Amino acid sequence: MTDPRHDPPPTVRQLRLVVEADDYDAAVAFFRDALGLPEEAAYSGGDGARVVILDAGRATLELANPAQKRMIDEVEVGRQVAPRLRLAFEVDDGRAVTERLVAAGATEVAPPTVTPWQSLNARLDAPAGLHLTVFQELRTPEERAALDGFGTDA
Predict the structure, then answer these.
(1) Band of residue 32 on the pLDDT scale cut at 50, 70, 90
(2) Number of neighbouring beta carbons within 10 Å of residue 91
């Protein structure tokens, strides 16, 4: 085990996903107002240029091989639907957030479903052409670590 006091400082401070939204106002209303991502900053420029930076909490980068991507689609939706990129948002109440997002204009691809990894996951198509998973963890990380198939590659 390494001593964290001697680990080098992280070189990446933030993961920022930049998405071009043809209907900017609808995308802002969906992600800021319906999903509840707080506005961190907003800028405008000439020729109608606009951008908003929304705080999505802690960011991770999930890398999956094609077999894993197919398996996740099968478990969550029952068929292959996800494009190469899919956003996933952890929420406290997966059913309520799914209902709120559908009311705000998302299309439900698959309703909230309990997965083998013990989370409640729903799939949605959202503004700006984004495919989403909204997920609620049903077990603690310690409880999940005791399940077969969980752990790290380390």
Answers:
(1) very high
(2) 19
Cβ burial 10-23 (10 Å sphere, 16+ → b, else e): eeeeeeeeeeebee
Calpha distance 53→17 (Å, rounded)? 10
Question: Is the Cα dihedral 127, 133, 138, 143 positive or negative?
Answer: negative
Mind listing the pLDDT tens digit for each residue in 75-98?
999 999 999 899 999 999 999 999
Q: In this predicted model, what pLDDT tens digit does every residue of 113-128 receive, in sequence order?
A: 999 889 999 999 999 9
CA 9 to chain centre: 26
